[in-house]
Amino acid sequence: MKLLGQGRTASVHDYGKGKVVKLYQPEIPEEDADREWAASSLAFSLGIRTPKPYEIVRIEGRIGLVYQHISGVTLLDVIKGKPWAVSASAKSLAWVHAEIHSREGGGLREQKPMLADHISAAPLLTPEEKQRTLHHLDRLPAGYSLCHGDFHPDNVIVNDGSWIVDWMNGICGHPAGDAARTLLLLSIGSMPENTSRTISSLINLGRRRLKSAYLSQYLKASGLSYTSIDEWLLPVAAARLSEGIPEAEKEQLAKIVRERLTPDH
């Protein structure tokens, strides 16, 4: 099968007849694939523009999810190719995100218990820091909306519209928490060690512009306040520490957590 894309958790291959198969790496727990299948199937049934899920298969011992093949480029590629049009890309990202949140996510994994589990397992934080973060999370409102859980420009395919992919982190929860996760993903991320200072500066400038434009448009589309989203950044940042990301990014996240735990924040 022709390889179409390769990620940390899975690879995507041509499956023929207008279909692709997303094959999970052998070390990825099968429950992760089950969660993606449940979330993508629910999103499709609710009218979200996402590739149609067909079936679950096993190929050479690896579990695979068969989807409709969507041709196009990612929104991230669009931004890279037309950085001067970042505002238009951010608007598209925000309004599609708000559309997802307009649907109910009943039956999927719940947001707050999931975040609590990840916070408890987070490295770089002391037991006291974890406890204070969990206490903060406990005070936040529960929600019942469909949430993507990993919504960023590389998970949006663009052709004659915007298609949402990669529902492995799909959950039922509060839209503000999902938006906070997106703001975090747009804000930080490690770069290769050989990245020049000039390139790093340009990338950081682009991130700030994209984040600002996304936030402005999402507030308009959702009707939420900035404060309601900002309240979720502490637990979302702490929870992301438990993911398989570079150490440099974890250090940035730990810094955010500690800054937000200070009394005068």
Write a concise synopsis of the structure shown:
This protein has two domains: 3-68, Phosphorylase Kinase, domain 1, CATH 3.30.200.20; 73-261, Aminoglycoside 3'-phosphotransferase, Chain: A, domain 2 (Alpha-Beta Complex). The chain has ten helices and ten strands. It has helices at residues 30-45, 75-81, 86-101, 111-120, 127-139, 175-187, 197-222, 226-230, 233-240, 247-261, and strands spanning 3-6, 10-16, 19-24, 53-59, 62-68, 73-74, 145-147, 156-158, 162-164, 171-173.
Sum up the structure in keywords:
about 260 residues; alpha+beta; Phosphorylase Kinase, domain 1; Aminoglycoside 3'-phosphotransferase, Chain: A, domain 2; 2 domains; globular
What does this protein structure show overall?
This is Aminoglycoside phosphotransferase domain-containing protein. InterPro entries: Aminoglycoside_PTrfase, Kinase-like_dom_sf. It comes from Paenibacillus stellifer. It holds the Pfam family APH. With 265 residues, the protein is of the alpha+beta class. The chain folds into two domains: 66 residues, 2-Layer Sandwich (Phosphorylase Kinase, domain 1), CATH 3.30.200.20; 189 residues, Aminoglycoside 3'-phosphotransferase, Chain: A, domain 2. Helix content is 49%, strand content 17%. It is built from ten helices and ten strands. A five-stranded antiparallel sheet has the order 1-2-3-5-4, with helices on one face. Strands 6-8-9 form a three-stranded antiparallel sheet. A two-stranded antiparallel sheet has the order 7-10. A hairpin with a 2-residue loop joins β2 and β3.
